[in-house]
Amino acid sequence: MEISGKIKYKSGDIQVSSSFKKSELVITTDENYPQHILIEFAQDKCDLVDPYKIGESVKVSINLRGREWVNPQGETKYFNQIQGWKIEKTAEAQSPTQAYEAKHEAAATEEEDSDLPF
Fold first, then answer.
1. How large a percentage of the chain has pLDDT more than 90?
2. Is residue 118 part of a domain?
3. 48-98: per-residue pLDDT in tens?
4. Are 105 and 72 in contact (CB under 8 A)?
5. Residue 73: inside a domain
6. Within-domain flag for 101
7. Is 23 within a domain?
8. Cβ(26)–Cβ(9) below 8 Å
9. How many domains does the chain have?
10. What confidence category does residue 114 fall into, taking pLDDT thresholds of 50, 70 and 90?
């Protein structure tokens, strides 16, 4: 699966234990109702996040993880986790105005290059 959007937050490396580290990244999706999705990168994947800055548009490849836990009272609880394993920069999304202007600039250029008399 993939999630695309802009980086809203990045944590840097978090040392959970002597043998486990993670890095958290929050992506704000580009939708009518934007979502703020927390993605965790673990162990050697933490380094993938380092080159990226807050505000950059990215596409993150993810795996969904779920687990079951029974508490001391015997109640079963379920937890979900989103793990990132690849991240890449994407082109900035164009606003509707920018897309309109680019389309009409291209059309005007085609008209100027035409050899037809009409």
1. 69
2. no
3. 999 999 999 999 999 999 999 999 999 999 999 999 999 999 986 555 555
4. no
5. yes
6. yes
7. yes
8. yes
9. 1
10. low
Whether the Cβ atoms of residue 44 and residue 23 lie closer than 8 Å to each other: no
Q: Specify the 3-state DSSP secondary structure of 109.
A: helix
pTM: 0.70
Start-to-end C-alpha separation, the chain: 50
Residue 26: both structure tokens together? 């929050």
Residue range(s) defining the domain that contains residue 27? 2-113
SS3 content of the chain, % helix, strand, coil (to 5): 20, 50, 30
Looking up residue 101, the CATH number of its domain turns out to be: 2.40.50.140
The structure tokens listed for 105 are 């600039």
Q: Using a CB cutoff of 8 Å and minimum separation of 24, what contacts does 61-68 make?
A: 61/1, 61/2, 61/85, 61/86, 61/87, 62/1, 62/2, 62/3, 63/1, 64/1
- Spatial distance between the Cα atoms of 11 and 36, rounded to a whole number of angstroms: 15
Q: How far apart are CA 21 and CA 18, in angstroms?
A: 8
Largest CA distance in the chain: 85
Cβ proximity of 49 and 27 under 8 Å: no
